[in-house]
Amino acid sequence: MEYRLPFDTKLTAEAGDIELTLTFSKAVINDDGTSTQYVRKTLPTTITITPIASWSDLIPDAALTALDQRIIALNLAQEQLAQLAQLLNTGKADNIVIEGDQLQLTSNGEKIGDAVTVNQTFNINTNGELKVVEI
């Protein structure tokens, strides 16, 4: 006989050995009105919960199923994409600063790239608007 029982995070949250026995019981009412009780107890068994840090030491990559290997590959790709997004976020231009005749891109308040010199000095009103002169 084979019994399949779900393991939840309460059981597998802590690493170590878990010793358990299972008891199966059933009560049946017979045709004559009497009852019969059936009880089956298993021998003690041990389940070892391996810490995640040590898991890869015990299970070689060759032992993983194709689905496990694909999930691991997707997790690595997700981590690489997160790192790329962080890199792009730190280097993106999100504003432009005008200082005299220089235009400068900024990212998170820091100047990035090369400043561009323009032939005309910009006049900025006190309300922060740029006065544009058409040529």
Can you characterise this structure?
This protein has 135 residues and is of the alpha+beta class. It folds into 2 domains: 1-52, no CATH class; 65-120, no CATH class. 27% of the residues lie in helices and 35% in strands. The chain has 3 helices and 9 strands; from the N terminus they run αββββααβββββ. The strands form 4 sheets. Strands 5-6-7 form a 3-stranded antiparallel beta sheet, with no helix packed on it. The chain is elongated, with a radius of gyration of 34 Å.
Short summary:
The chain has 135 residues and is α+β, with helices and mostly antiparallel strands. It has helices at 9-12, 52-58, 66-91; strands spanning 16-20, 23-29, 35-41, 45-49, 95-99, 102-107, 110-117, 123-124, 130-131.
Which terms summarize this structure?
single chain, 135 residues, 27% helix, alpha+beta, 9 strands
